[in-house]
Design a protein that fits this description.
three-stranded antiparallel sheet
Length: 120
């Protein structure tokens, strides 16, 4: 069974990718599709997936920021990136999709069902 945040699949560069609603992964809110919504292609391990986002405000080039790592109570590491943008210094959480259980399930689903269909 699929996770409720996995809302479908699509073809990109002759590959079938799972499409995930990023809003549903973190809140019960469904991402509305309008002129500002975007699909970000991201790699998780050896799989590519699509993440539907409500609005893309800014892409931060990682090479210009400073990455900080913090251990949390679940023995996982969280990361922040601090960048200077428009004469302001801001910190942002770094999305680590490999630690999200629903996205791990997506990788298993892709291997079992979509990949054989796409290659036939």
């Amino acid at each position: 069974m699929l996770h409720e945040a996995q809302i479908g699949s699509f073809i990109w560069n002759q590959q079938t990718l799972a499409l995930w609603d990023l809003g549903r992964l973190s809140t019960p809110k469904i991402t509305e599709m309008d002129g500002e919504s975007r699909v970000l292609i991201t790699r998780i391990g050896d799989q590519l997936i699509g993440l539907l986002v409500e609005k893309l405000i800014l892409l931060l080039p990682g090479r210009i920021g400073q990455v900080h790592q913090f251990a949390n109570s679940n023995a996982r590491t969280s990361q922040l990136i601090t960048v200077k943008h428009d004469d302001h210094i801001k910190s942002y959480s770094i999305l680590d999709p490999e630690n999200w259980a629903p996205l791990k399930e997506s990788r298993q689903f892709l291997r079992q069902y979509i990949s054989p269909i796409a290659s036939s």
